[in-house]
Amino acid sequence: MIGSAFALLTCLAGGVGAALRFCLDALIRHRVRPSYPVATSVVNLSGSLLLGLLTGLATRQFLPHSWYIVSGTGLLGGYTTFSTASFETVRLLEERRYLAALTNGFGLLLAATAAAAAGFLVALPIAG
Amino acid sequence: MSGEDPTLPVAADLPAAAVATDRPAAGRLSMADVGVVMVGGVVGTGARFAIGTLVPRWSGVPVATFGINIVGAFLLGVLLELLAKRNLDTGWSHRVRLGVGTGGLGAFTTYSALATETVVLAAGHPARAAGYALATVVIGAVASIAGIWFARSHQRPVDESARS
């Protein structure tokens, strides 16, 4: 349980996270004009790596719980997104690009989970 | 990946004004657009935070995140299909897509929690963790398709509204 000030901060951090995702998405699309959803994948992979890291730090009490919620549930929760990734997978299926759809569905899941695990493992020696 | 969309290079060669205004001047972000996404993100995060606080884990499985991601995938399918049929991305339609879609449903759903919860759950219950992660992706895709179909089946024919 965290206080109402931290709850409000969590929501605001989520708004900042969503804005960061929007800006990074526009930046990546501007550079590469991808036919594969690169931008959403970059956002979700980097966000998963960072949340794994924060979770490792919080597990060792290196990061106070309230700030873990603000940065993890708020900032990174708002930054990463499942709904867009899922929609883009279905778009690839509609275009009959089955390999790309599988990569964006199961490949991203595997990579994001590996990224979170890597972040978690890196955090443990940092937190001591 | 062999099946590249052949229309993409053509669209890229068109003058900026002729390209669909989906992402108007890429690189030149409108501060108003960023603000709309941010407001939606605050609301979406608040809803996810509230549900996550109220709904306990079920045998270690984060059912709150699971339900949030499935419902969010369905709703984004409905929204984007409705707006796609309107075939314009200006004014209110543009702001609804950014505020409710990119900001609201984008922040309501989450991938980082899915990945991290899977890792944490896998430490004690690897089979449950794999089931949770795979079920989210598979049922999430089904929910996206269901959302698109739902929007299509509740869509007034475009010609009819044009005639009236």
* Helix and strand element order of chain A: HHHHH
Q: Which stretches of chain B are low in confidence, meaning pLDDT under 50 for 5 or more residues running?
A: 1-26, 160-164
Q: Give the helix level of chain A as a range of percent.
A: over 70%
So what's the oligomer here?
heterodimer
How many distinct beta strands of chain A?
0
Query: Helix tally of chain A?
Result: 5
| Measured distance between first and last alpha carbons of chain B | 45 Å
Largest sheet of chain B: none
User: Which H/E pattern describes the elements of chain B?
Assistant: HHHHHHH
Outline the secondary-structure elements.
The complex is a heterodimer of chains A (128) and B (164).
Chain A: H1 4-32, H2 38-59, H3 65-79, H4 83-94, H5 98-127
Helix pairs in contact in A: 1-2, 1-3, 2-3, 2-5, 4-5
Chain B: H1 7-13, H2 31-54, H3 63-86, H4 91-108, H5 112-124, H6 126-153, H7 158-163
Helix pairs in contact in B: 2-4, 3-4, 3-6, 5-6
Annotation keywords:
heterodimer; A: 128 residues; mainly alpha; 84% helix; 0% strand; B: 164 residues; disordered N terminus
Give an overview of the whole structure:
The complex is a heterodimer of chains A (128) and B (164). By secondary structure, chain A is mostly helical. Chain A contains five helices and no strands. In chain A, helix 2 runs antiparallel to helix 3, helix 2 packs parallel to helix 5 and helix 4 runs antiparallel to helix 5. The longest helix of chain A is centred in the last third of the chain and has 30 residues. The two termini of chain A are 26 Å apart. Chain B is built from seven helices and no strands. Chain B is globular and about 50 Å long. Chain B starts with 6 loop residues before the first helix and ends with a helix. The chains are: A mainly alpha (128), B mainly alpha (164). Chains A and B meet through helix 1, helix 2, helix 3, helix 4 and helix 5 of A and helix 2, helix 3, helix 4, helix 5 and helix 6 of B.
